[in-house]
Amino acid sequence: MKKSVLSLASAMLFAFSANAQKVEFEEYDLSNGMHVILHQDNSAPVVTVGVMYHVGSKDEVEGKTGMAHFYEHLLFTGTKNIGRGEWSKIVAANGGAGNANTTWDRTYYYETFPSNNLELGLWMESERLLHPTIDQKAVDTQNEVVKEEKRQRMDNAPYGKIIYGDVYRHIFDKHNYKNSLIGSMKDLDGATLEEFKAFYDKWYMPNNAVLVIAGDFETKNTKKLIKNYFESIPARTLPKRETTVEPERTKEKRVKEYDSNIQLPAILLAHKTPAMKERDAKVLDVISTILSNGKSSRLYKKLVDDKKKALQVFSFARNLEDYSVYNIGAIPLGKTSLEDLIKEMDEEILKLQTELISDKDLQKVRNKFENNFVASNSNVQGIANSLARNYMLIGNTNNINKELEIVNSITKEEIRAVAKKYLAKDRRIVIEYLPESKKK
């Protein structure tokens, strides 16, 4: 969602020492089941208030897709005590910035304020949970906003179906990760007001949420405010989540995907991989770094620098709660064919599957992960998001402090074994990503 109203100087967000390697926090539950995480850092007069709800696009039902992402927008309309269209104005008038984002697994709302406006942030988030404005006017207005976002991010963005996961329908046959994150505009247009309200009632409750506060605050008073604003909100019965088991692929699958916004094709090797809490998921993150993170990575050096067969190469994991997705891809240069790129990428994958990486390469990977850790936790917004995500999707808030330890414990033998297991040809989907003009 691009709804941020920025009035704080970005320098004020830096409330985490670059030398620190441990994030201190406290966590507890309210009587209504809402989980609370507090990270106190008084080094800068700024505080983030965030609420993460355990609902995403995987929780939608067939024919009613797009609801989770739609609420990311709808819940900025206003509430019983916040006038229609006033939410962002209130945030801006009080020196804050606010935003929200959705994944397949969760939806996250947050505001960052000067610390003397902590209570305002708590009140606004409690308002969002207590009595938001969900009426036909709000639905109609946000429907147009979502359509425009889809046009910009996916329909008119080169390679947007790769970036935003629309190609996941080729990877998952049963699991709802196959659904588009933004959803179907036809489904949203056909949904009734009662169906929108029912989705909110089904998922938006304190016992399906984690409240996180990070930054400059006084703990005793903050706990009192949290109790005042949130504990009286009644819990409701959580819907039972059905566990969908995605069958393992035993034969390579080849498909074609077309994009009207590109002139150059791309090749994508897509894989279903383990849930984000699994150690192998982190090993695959390491493999991704080895293959394509930076100009010294194996694929970049080989295909872009040395052989000049690719304009760009990439590999990335999207780590999700139930399963993850790992993609390796390239855009050809000149007359290089997609099959030639597959051959070249397979050679590098085979090396990972049969040879041990060098001590130098392993240390380089560890250094990059340490830099990424410091960057992601360099401000209170980043820390708040990480704490909530680790609690909700990993099941262990302190995983925020274990990630580097896990990476540093990964062995060369593990990298070889994981590459052999999950990057096997019979487990993958080969996606030819082609210009629309190539469609017959």
TrEMBL record:
GO biological process, one term: proteolysis
Pfam family, one: Peptidase_M16_C
GO-annotated molecular function: metal ion binding; metallopeptidase activity
Residues in the signal sequence: 1-20
Keyword S-adenosyl-L-methionine tagged: no
InterPro entries, per database record: Metalloenz_LuxS/M16 (IPR011249), Pept_M16_N (IPR011765), Peptidase_M16 (IPR050626), Peptidase_M16_C (IPR007863)
Source organism superkingdom: Bacteria
Domain Peptidase M16 C-terminal: 192-368
Keyword Signal: yes
Family: Belongs to the peptidase M16 family.
Protein name: Insulinase family protein
